[in-house]
Amino acid sequence: VEEQHWFADLQEHPVSTFTLVGQLLSLQEDHAIVRVTMDSLLSTASSAPNRVTWKAQFVQRAGRWLYGDVAFQQEASAHFVLKYVTPEQGALAAQLLSDAERAHDVVTADLAEQLAGPIEIKYYDDPELFRTSIYLSMTNARGWNEPGESIKITNITRDEVGRLIAHELTHAALFAKGVQHSGVHEGTAQFVAGLYSPRWQTEQVRKWRLQVYNVVRANRDVTLETLTDWRVWQVSDPGLIYNMSWENVAYFRERF
Asked: What is the pLDDT of residues 13-44, one digit of tens each?
């Protein structure tokens, strides 16, 4: 599914140049580790050249060598499989899985949705590889989830892990309920992340509400209807879809 989404985005955002080079690092019967370097340039005028390098695993099936994703290590817990790249990430695996389990309890309790498991989390050490694994056109982000895909995270501090996973798990739960509206997704994900970390939410509310007030004072037409597509806001005003959507969702959750 991830590859299908990647190529679908490539149809919408084609490249003007693209090269992919591999260097064989190890070969054991039907399994190989290859250092892959990908250079690309999107066809839009504002695009800059992009290069990303990673160790990938390939497997041989029926005489053909197939790409098998980044050469991840992995550990598991009751509901999750955590995939990571570096020993430093591996040292944090037990605590990250513990935080993920607590996030799972918060999300499933609040949204009354039991998520099918095991849930895969891919923890990238390189933000460029994280973005490239989603779309070549992907803008800055630190967490990701789409229907049928793994939860992906990168570039996070120790105290952010649990609430970021709670945010992305909320997306998974809403997709399972058939919700597609970006504003409902992002607002609910921020709201539930606040349930996971009330202190963080208290610290953020003043900043979020200031941006909401500025929108109102500027007579900007920002409603749940205009927040339908996150891509529009990700380019023009990336924080707004999170903050305005949270304000709308919080309003309804507090009153109904």
From this structure: 999 999 999 999 999 999 999 999 999 999 99
R_g (Cα) of the chain, nearest Å = 20
CA neighbor of 181 nearest in space, from 135, 215, 229? 229
Among residues 121, 241, 107, 112, the alpha carbon closest in space to that of 177 is found at 112
Residue 77 CA to residue 69 CA, distance in Å, equals: 21
pTM, to two decimals: 0.90
In this structure, the dihedral spanned by the alpha carbons of residues 185, 108, 125 and 122, taken in order and rounded to 10 degrees, is -100
Closest CA to 36 of 122, 116, 129: 129
Question: What is the end-to-end Cα distance of the chain in Å, rounded?
Answer: 36
What residues have CB less than 8 Å from 176, skipping those under 6 apart? 113, 115, 116
Enter the tokens of residue 208: 């979020």
Give the number of other Cβ atoms within 10 Å of residue 218's Cβ.
8
